[in-house]
Amino acid sequence: MTLYLVRHGQTEFNRAGRYQGRLDSPLTALGVEQGRRIGQRLAQLLPDGADLVASPLGRAAHTARLVAEAAGLSEPRLDDRLMEVSLGRWDGMTDEDIEAVYPGARNGTDRWNWYFASPDGERYEQLAARAGAWLAEAAASPRPLVAVSHGVTGRVIRGLYAGLSRIETLKLPVPQDAVFRLTGGEVEQIDCAPLETTVNGR
């Protein structure tokens, strides 16, 4: 299996410091550029094409369509298992909102584990189970596979693939202008050059 894992481009919520979870917000102009840039890079990496799958949440599906257009791939297939972790009633809130409405609810957590402290959100074990089921299925793909997902879910997919601990997994970087290539048991980050420096497919 060779998997190219992508995070969706920047959204209005990202720019405002608002946690999306299962809610959605549109891509910014930068987010659209990031999707196109990633597609251009994938066109170089995958001259013979690949299958494309994405989370059904709007920001990931939009990014996947941009990738498909720039890389010459077919329309993405949507898979619920690639959706972002649900923060339950915390979806759409900022740090300040959470503390104001649920004071002290994140006490005892840290900057990586707090996502799973919501009273009605998804737990790490649930996220790892669905991401792991998807990854096991993806491993059987005979063709290269491009997957467009999210920050926390993408971390978990990479962590499971690399056999990392929970805390190692949650500390992984989540850039919106890079591709992660998973193959041969290794994970490689491939940064994507800005559009203005990309000339004749280079």
Automatic annotation (TrEMBL):
| Highest taxon, organism lineage | Bacteria
What terms describe the molecular function in GO for this protein?
A: phosphatase activity
Annotated residues that bind substrate are located at: 7-14, 59
Q: Does the keyword rRNA processing apply?
A: no
Annotated active site: 8 (tele-phosphohistidine intermediate), 84 (proton donor/acceptor)
Q: Which Pfam families match?
A: His_Phos_1
Q: Which GO terms describe its cellular component?
A: cytoplasm
Mind telling me which SUPFAM superfamilies this protein's record contains?
Phosphoglycerate mutase-like
> Known InterPro entries for this protein?
His_Pase_superF_clade-1, His_PPase_superfam, PG/BPGM_mutase_AS, PGM_Phosphatase
Q: Report keywords, A-Z.
A: Glycolysis, Isomerase
What is this protein called in UniProt? Answer: Phosphoglycerate mutase
Q: What broad taxonomic lineage does this protein's source fall under?
A: Bacteria, Pseudomonadati, Pseudomonadota, Alphaproteobacteria, Caulobacterales
